[in-house]
Amino acid sequence: MKTKLALLLVGLSFATGCSTSQVWNEHRPGDARRGSAEPELQLFLTPDRRDVLVTYFESKDGTRGRVPRAYYARANAARLRNSLKPEFAPPSAAAGLQPIPLDPPVPNFTTSALSRGSGLRARLSSSDHGFTLTERGRELEYYPLPLYETAAADIRKVALTPFAVASDALAVAACLLPPFAFAFATSPNH
Question: Nearest to residue 32, comparing CAs of 62, 54, 1, 11?
Answer without folding.
Answer: 62
